[in-house]
Design goal:
about 325 residues, Beta-galactosidase, Chain A, domain 5
């Protein structure tokens, strides 16, 4: 299948470039407080650099079949345990080393402001049961939002948890870290993790901890605090339990760059959001403008089911999908200045 790049535009001058390889958002150009257009996502200038033979990254990608971690690379459905790839210690992370972020998607349709991609993941793909037929729709709206809609059906009981793994830097310059970004998360609780990054099964209050983003706070304010969760994650790499509870009419998060004045609001039908502050970026990958991507050069806001949901049995985060059901998920990133 041919590697292709598509450019979406709206009436306000905002553009989004998306490739059919992994459904990746390659660039996202939005106006800053002075009207200057800035690309606010990390990635590569050459499309070929996204291919795994060049770089094995998740920049901008659709993640599936299961975003985030599954303990011991296992799931149990109707009494049957399935062994999945273990590509994160003992865990299966982001669907394994051959997850959907490394697949060529089919192009269903394309217009000036919308792109529809599809993928068929066969029964047994990376150990997951069921043939999954997936559709991802990107729409660039005139209120400067990128809407992403996911749909999937299966012919056997399986698990589905899809997200987008864009690395955001609203400074529009990855040589300037995101520690100055002001982050707000509408969440009173989060899911603490153990040493292997798997949730402990508890829902913890953010009260009095560095995990409290209910009021706008610089990401760097507490990131180096002597707090066990930050030590384990090497920064923020945690799932927040969203108060919006699937209501995508209200923002679940807000990110602001004081430098450029760019504001990004996140809306989602998902119950959780993983915040990842580029903790494992180490300068070994050189991206746009020949910039070596260092730790804290971006932040990911990954809307999702809770990590390890099939094994944790979270009541608010059902990741199971059966043949008579359709998986649907929506996330919107809306920009202001």
């Amino acid at each position: 299948m041919e590697l292709r790049l598509f450019k979406l535009r709206n009436s306000k001058g905002m553009t989004a470039e998306i490739t059919n390889f992994g459904g990746r958002i390659v660039s996202l150009w939005v106006p800053d407080k002075n009207g200057k257009m800035r690309d606010v996502v990390l990635g590569f200038e050459k499309l070929e650099d996204y291919l795994p033979e060049k770089h094995f990254t998740d920049f901008g990608a659709v993640i599936g079949r299961y975003a985030n971690r599954l303990n011991n690379g296992q799931i149990t459905i109707d009494g049957h345990t399935y062994q999945l790839p273990q590509n994160d210690g003992a865990n299966c992370l982001h669907g394994g080393p051959d997850g959907w972020q490394y697949r060529m998607f089919n192009v269903e349709s394309v217009s000036d402001n919308q792109l529809v991609l599809s993928l068929v993941s066969e029964d047994g793909d990376s150990g997951f049961p069921g043939k999954a037929c997936v559709r991802v729709t990107y729409t660039l709206t005139d209120d400067n939002a990128l809407d992403i809609e996911y749909e999937a059906v299966t012919d056997k009981p399986t698990v589905i948890n899809m997200t987008n793994h864009s690395y955001f830097n609203l400074n529009g310059d990855a040589s300037c870290d995101i520690l100055n970004h002001l982050l707000t998360i509408d969440a009173d609780r989060y899911t603490p993790i153990g040493e292997t990054f798997i949730p402990t099964g508890k829902l913890a209050s953010v009260d009095g901890t560095p995990m409290d983003f209910r009021q706008a706070k610089a990401i760097g304010r507490n990131i180096a605090s002597d707090f066990e969760q930050l030590r384990i994650g090497r920064g923020y790499d945690h799932n927040w339990v969203l108060n919006t509870q699937g209501d995508d009419s209200h923002p679940c998060a807000r990110l602001v760059s004081p430098l450029t004045g760019i504001v990004m609001e996140v809306f989602t039908t998902e119950p959780g959001m993983q915040v990842y502050t580029g903790n494992f970026l180490d300068g070994n990958v050189t991206g746009k403008k020949n910039i070596a991507y260092q730790q804290r050069s971006a932040v990911c806001l990954e809307t999702q089911k809770f990590p390890d949901s099939p094994n944790q049995h979270w009541t608010a985060s059902n990741a199971f999908l059966r043949p008579d059901e359709t998986y649907k998920s929506k996330t919107k990133y809306r920009f202001q200045k």
